[in-house]
Write a structure and sequence with these properties.
single chain, alpha+beta, Aminopeptidase i, Domain 2, eight-stranded mixed β-sheet, seven-stranded antiparallel β-sheet, globular, protease, metalloprotease, aminopeptidase activity
Length: 464
Amino acid sequence: MAQKKLTKKDIEKLTKDLTLIKRHGWFSLKGTEKKECLSYADEYKQFISTAKTEREVASHITDILKERPEIKFWTFRNKAVCVYKPGKRPAAQGLRIIVSHIDAPRLDLKLNPLYEDQEMAYLKTHYYGGIKKFHWVTRPLALHGVVFLKDGRCVKISIGEDKNDPVLTINDLLPHLASKVQGEKKLREAIPAEKLNVLLGGFPIEGPDDTKEAVKLNCLHILNTTYGITERDLISAELEIVPQGEARDVGIDRAFIGGYGQDDRACAYASLKAIMDSKDVEYANLALFLDKEEIGSDGNTGAKSKCLELALYDIFRLEGTVIEPDTIYKALNASKAISGDVTAGVDPDYMEVYEKRNDALMGYGINLTKYTGSRGKYSANDAHAEFVDWVTRLWDKEGIIWQAGELGRVDEGGGGTVAKYIASLGIDTVDAGPPLLSMHSPFEVAHKLDLYMTYRAYKAFFEA
């Protein structure tokens, strides 16, 4: 049967009604939304500039929530936090849960880090998470963390962030001497992990000329005078080497934010602000901020721990719920969750690893990732169609600018999030967060519109 020839107007209507048209999100902002987007970005910049370790993020969250008595929170080893806001329905009938992680790739000090060589003092490190080691040399670095002294006192350390502080650094070879030692090696081998040694000092202690390791001793003397630290205390210390400096606007139009730890503090900040701002919620809201995601979610502060279940038992007791053997499982099975995590934004300089039809674009809104994993979706959650439809229809209704994408070409690499661990509890779960450029580097880049839409999407989810 011959098909009726369509007019140009008919074609335009069909295109609008049937096809998925991608458009930069900035064109779709209305009224005061552009101003709100930029204001949100400024608040977020301040957050990632000051909270650079999982302990610092956890402390920031709890400090804010102490001023909000209607919101309950639980902390776990000062590295993970569970935040709860009651809804009209008791938690036993199901919750709206957003889970993000607050650890980030970095360099940790080894157990016996301090040594002297060629009359310079250094700190040995062991990298944490997936890094490109060459990113960490010849740049200003800071030292953050905690040290427990002999008398049991905990001393917080932050060296390098104040304008009057010295910074630390890791040296690299000059090009004149590097052709064989580095130039003929593969990129991942050019900077060996055991050479990620942090330059700490170079003045010997004032004393006899034959004093052994006088520079190391001088550094220890400074640490002891300032903080009360001895070398023995470094064994139990948790000290992290992180990039020094504040997050900055990027681009002459200030469209982007560059800074450390945006994977995954972009989602952590969005979920914290969303749960504080959510209103008239039907289902109880729960935001979970976890540690150890970058090294597999293990330990008793990661997604494989029982932090969520422990908090839920307390919540049931607070609400007077009679706890039966299956109460927690029924509540979790009736819940909906977002695994708040970032994804890779398409970088036009490296299109050979991206699939342009199915990867996230910068400035196109929060990205929904139905599945992660690698080698045929191995280790993925792979959200169900019913739940993906529920989430996306909700975002459409609330005017959220969103997109859907994967993480690069099939078999090119892949990655994982906490989604599979949350889903294993019986909760419908999907990944969603902003795309980043230069992910896992000391200076990750996010688009301000995507950050703002992540907050808007999370708030809509909590209020659904």
